[in-house]
Amino acid sequence: MRKPKYYIGEFEELVLMAIVSLREKAYGVKIGDAIEQATARSVSIGALYTTLSRLEEKGLISSWMGEATSERGGRAKKYFKIEAPGKLALNHADASRRRLANLKPSLNLIGVVS
Amino acid sequence: MSRRKRNKRKLICGNAASTPRDPFSGLLGKRFTRIESYAPTVIIGKPDNSGDVAKESLDDETKKALHSILGLLFVGVVLSILSENRGKETANPPKNVELLLLLIVRRDERDAVIGDLIERYRRSHQRLGRRRADLYAYGEVCRSLYPFMKRLFYGTGVIVLLGQWIKKLIT
């Protein structure tokens, strides 16, 4: 089996998936909203930005500064985009989960999650 | 002709025999007849030498006053609504929250983090009001302290360890 370059955690995976789903409009507030809507758990700014900077340091995502808008008090937005290693890491995480699920075919996951 | 109609006709046409004499009719030099309406009349100003007195009906005055009061009220309500909405659009989180974030956030992230906080704060201000929005901002910063501080100290910890290692190598 090919060894992946980067391992990503659960929250990192959620952030990557949110960035992929938002495409070009992915910035802090939108990413946080997408995760909150999908998982019903609140995301703090600190947790989100430390994760984003970690992913950026790993080279899984890239960022650029956007326009400053009045609704943000004249502060600029920081947009994020997934890079090729990020896509690979996401695919690897997904494949790992599927493989693990296949190891226990008799496990009724629907019954476990109420 | 019925009595009611007769009375009305008297009031409109000013029957000389039946119309009550106005106390100021002598000054005016003619009989005062209430032609326009049943409303009482007021005399504005004092009779001058020529005996000319300005008379205006109270109705007109009250109408004008009411119009002006209603106009002022309308303008006030519109301005208050506009200012309230404007306040919601331009509301900012407490300054100490921003200062705390400025201390712990990296320089390249400051604009984005504080902008996000302002955007979230304004959204909660519109939904929940100022007090709860302030509480939300404080809560958000308290929750963000740990991840930011952890990153900050992790970075400095690595530098300290590196320094100790270099020191060992030298000695």
Describe this structure in words.
The complex is a heterodimer of chains A (114) and B (171). Chain A has 114 residues and is an alpha+beta fold. Chain A has helices at 10-22, 28-39, 45-58, 84-103, 109-112, and strands at residues 61-69, 75-82. The longest helix of chain A is centred in the last third of the chain and has 20 residues, at 84-103. Chain A starts with 9 loop residues before the first helix and ends with a helix. In chain B, α5 (110-128) runs antiparallel to α6. At the A-B interface, α2, α3 and β2 of A face α5 and α6 of B.
The H-and-E topology of chain B, N to C, reads as HHEEHHHH
Helix content of chain A: 55-70%
Q: How many beta-strand segments of chain B?
A: 2
By DSSP (H or I, 4+ residues per run), the number of helices of chain A equals: 5
Distance between the termini of chain A: 35 Å
Q: Which runs of chain A of at least 5 residues are low in confidence (pLDDT < 50)?
A: none
Distance between the termini of chain B: 130 Å
Uncertain stretches of 5 or more adjacent residues of chain B: 13-19, 25-38
Question: Largest sheet of chain B at a glance?
Answer: 2 strands, antiparallel
* SSE string of chain A, helices as H and strands as E: HHHEEHH
Strand content of chain A: 5-15%
How big is the Rg of chain B?
A: 39 Å
Overall 3D form of chain B: rod-shaped
User: Can you give the mean pLDDT of chain B?
Assistant: 73
Radius of gyration of chain A, Cα only, in angstroms? Answer: 16 Å
Taken as a percent bin, the fraction of beta residues of chain B is under 5%
Helix content of chain B: 55-70%
The shape of chain A is: globular
Any key phrases for this structure?
heterodimer, A: 114 residues, alpha+beta, 5 helices, 2 strands, 55% helix, globular, B: 171 residues, mainly alpha, two-stranded antiparallel sheet, rod-shaped
